[in-house]
Amino acid sequence: xxxxxxxxxxxxxxxPPPGGPQGLPSAQPSSPFPAEPxxxxxRRRWIPRLMVLLFFAALTAPCIAALVPREIxxxxxxxxxxxxxxxxxxxxxxxxxxxxxxxxKNAGMLRQRAVWRLEDGQQEAALTDVNLAAxxxxxxxxxxxxxxxxxxxxxxHAEAIQDWKTLDRLSQTHGTPTRAQALNGLAYARAxxxxxxxxxxxxxxxxxxxxxxxxxxxxxxxxxxxxxGEHEKALPDLDAAVPxxxxxxxxxxxxxxxxxxxxxSADIDESGINSPEQGVAVVRYHRALxxxxxxxxxxxxxxxxxxxxxxxxxPDEKLF
Length: 320
Fold this sequence. Notes:
By secondary structure, the protein is an all-alpha fold. The chain is built from 13 helices and no strands. Among the domains are: 61-104; 213-320. It is elongated. The N and C termini lie far apart (136 Å).
């Protein structure tokens, strides 16, 4: 065994004591507490929030993409209606074109332009617009009613009757229009076209069973009886229809202006072609025809004067 040198320190069996290699205290004495672990990197809390926002954005983006153009189109439509009401027709058409550009398949926008074109005597252009509206919304009641009206102005009465047959079917399957409205509309389309008058009388009789005192339906039956030469039978219906329509006009006129607009047009303004004044003028004109056929010229003239006052022109067969 080798003997240790006199100058070499001896160590316990477990190794050198704490401190330096020579058994001296180290420069940094050890702490009586355990050392703290290094801080963990901060969690990026904004990342989960961003993911949630992106998720909801993905869900709502299609809705926003659909709603925003529609709202912009509606804004242009309202501006166009204001221009039209103020007599700025060219500007109104330009504004409406902007509305259609933003919502090209919106049946309501196309229907509004068709209404204005019909009012302005542009029947063919009106028919083009309403056909586009019908392509976008085949079962839209207002579109079909308007197309039937335009077709009547173009003397295409058989086609107008077909649209009213569709409306009659919709009244049975969808409940809109009502059965009385659909039957009366079909009867009146046949009366205006002077087609299928016996079937028209059956239609209007059914309508009156559902709405016995309706002045518009009474007008239809009176006009049909007149067309069939039954003037004496026609007169009582028209005598009841005239004051009924006049009362409706008075009631509308006595309502606040804002309510009148909502009743007459909703979003689409059809007051230029389907005003309550025109409704009264129609029944007055029909009664004048009956009174003339009965030889009561002076009484007939009273009705004609009233109709002229309401619509601003001479009433004729184009007054539906």
